[in-house]
Amino acid sequence: MTENLNPPVAGDRQEPLRLSDLQGRDDLGLVCRKCGCRHFYTRYTRAKPGCILRLKECRNCGHRMTTRERAG
Ligand SMILES: [Zn+2]
């Protein structure tokens, strides 16, 4: 298993968010508590009964947090 530490090229552009970009995103509103950054890597995704857990890591300061999303 190779750990990819480089951000994806497509996600590295500094463009303002458009409404069309926001639709369909379930991590909308996720903001780093430490630095206020809105860009996160997803370190892993784990499916649980009724929800999905994701470990997010801030691209700016490296702060990690988990998010919980409803499945289905
Ligand atoms: Zn941060």
What do you see in this structure?
The protein has a three-stranded antiparallel β-sheet with strand order 1-2-3, with no helix packed on it. A hairpin with a 2-residue loop joins strand 1 and strand 2 (51-58). Helices cover 6% and strands 33% of the residues. The radius of gyration is 13 Å and the shape is globular. The protein is mostly beta strands. It has a domain at 36-72. It starts with 18 loop residues before the first helix and ends with a strand. Residues 32, 34-35, 37, 58, 60-61, 63 line the site of zinc ion (ZN).
Q: Which features would summarize this protein structure in a list?
A:
72 residues, binds zinc ion, globular, mainly beta, 6% helix
Q: Kindly estimate the percentage of residues that lie in beta strands according to DSSP.
A: 25-35%
Separation of termini?
A: 30 Å
Number of helices: 1
Based on Cα principal axes, name the global outline: globular
Hetero groups: zinc ion
Number of strands: 3
**How confident is the prediction overall: mean pLDDT?**
78
**H/E element sequence:** HEEE
What kind of sheet is the major sheet? 3 strands, antiparallel
Enumerate the spans where pLDDT stays under 50 for 5 or more consecutive residues: none
Query: What Rg do the Cα atoms give?
Result: 13 Å
Briefly note the structural class of the backbone. mainly beta
Strand line-up across the major sheet: 1-2-3
Helix content: under 10%
